[in-house]
Amino acid sequence: MNRITDLEKKYVLQVLESGFRTSSGATFMQKFEAAFASKFGASHAISCVNGTATMHAILEAAGVGVGDEVIVPPLTMSATSFAVLQANATPVFADVCPDTFLIDPKSIGKCITDKTKAIITVALYGLSPEIDEIYQIINGKKIFVLEDNAECFGGTYKDKIVGTLGNAASFSFQSSKHLTSGEGGIVLTMDAELANKVRQINSLGYAGVSASNAKISKSDIQHPSYSRHASLGWNYRMPELCCAVALAQTERMEELVETRVKAANIFTEATSDFTDWFVPQANPEHCKNSYWSWVAFNKNDDHNWEVIRDSLLKNGHDGVYAAWKLSYEEPMFKKMEFLGRQEYISSENKKRYSNSPCPVAEYLQPRLFQFKTNYWNLSDAHRQAEIIRKTLKQFN
Questions:
Q1: Residue 25 to residues 10, 192, 219, 245, 308, Cα–Cα distance (Å)
Q2: In sequence order, what are the residues at sequence separation of 6 or more whose Cβ sits closer than 8 angstroms to the Cβ of residue 251?
């Protein structure tokens, strides 16, 4: 199986042959958005230039701003927190569950204040958080739920597809993701009003665009009296070339996701004799994990991350990743380098960042091993799994 096929090349060629004429602009954008929405059973899909712009646009459309707090997990790529800061709001970090590594609903409950405007859940490594428990914690409060599904395509929670569980969802098409167009992102929502706002925000505040209309008409834009901008907005639109590739990848989504799931299952089987100390991410029966990455937690403190990593490489493994440094442990949070937005952060929240607010995440982060699952030839996955098994046996 190939990650990029003749289908992607065919669609890209069609864009190039159009000469990027404005009269044919947004053709693949609209096809891609319609296909992606249909795949997930969503009412509205709005493509964006990347999976951080998606979250920023959603938060802006939801009215999140100065003085508002948004609850996020610290154990994920820091772009989740960046989007909150870009909306001039305050990230508040909830701890994670020790077995799934996902945001802990009980910790969310402890973080909620009268300033909480939104929660961003992260389907980390391809697994859905416990969304029902999160809604029980919210308990009728007007708190917006945004799903960050950059790492989860096709995963399910209690037979519902991840991406339809919150008020809106964000997906990424960055090069490492299940589906890729090099860069790109997309927003899903059932809320027509929110979708209209997201479209305007990601299209320079244009008055003539909406959830279902990504392009201003030529007759309008040519007229001297046409008023373009109804509000402030950003230029977050996804390029046609990227949309063409993303459309092809969306049409192939099941096979692209299934390849990663098969690789993850191979790793699970290879490490089954070592789960007393090399513990895979828990996978609840009511969830289907799409396995952006296969991840395990090293409980053996006699051998740290570097020692095991070096042994894997010595045995021929093609590389293992550590988990991201916790967002609030990054230098930008330590030094409050928020490009002026630090003035919007209360002194109480500044103290939170420096007072180890998430001890479970702090314990897990230096002990997590992230193994890639994008082996398009599964014989390569079997070979890597045998290297992992051989290495773990040395430490048993």
A1: 17, 23, 14, 15, 51
A2: 7, 35
The maximal CA–CA distance of the chain, rounded, in angstroms, is 75
Sign, CA dihedral 55-58-64-65, equals: positive
The span from the CA of 129 to the CA of 34, in Å, is 27
On the 0-12 / 13-18 / 19+ scale of CB atoms within 10 A, 59 is buried
Tokens standing for residue 26: 């947004």
Give pTM, 2 decimals.
0.96
The count of C-alpha atoms lying within 13 angstroms of the C-alpha of 53, restricted to the half-sphere facing its C-beta, is 24
The b-or-e profile of 114-123 (16+ CB within 10 A means b, else e) is eebbbbbbbb
Burial level of 208, CB count in 10 A (0-12/13-18/19+)?
middle
Q: State yes or no: pLDDT of 169 exceeds 90.
A: yes
CA–CA gap between residue 395 and residue 177 (Å, rounded) = 32
Task: Give tens-digit pLDDT for 64-93.
Answer: 999 999 999 999 999 999 999 999 999 999
Where is pLDDT greater, at 224 or 92? 92
DSSP string computed for 365-376: GGGEEEEE---S
Distance separating alpha carbons of residues 159 and 238, to the nearest angstrom: 31
Tell me if residue 206 falls in helix, strand or coil: strand
Helices (H), 18-49: 27-40
Per DSSP, the three-state class of 319 is coil
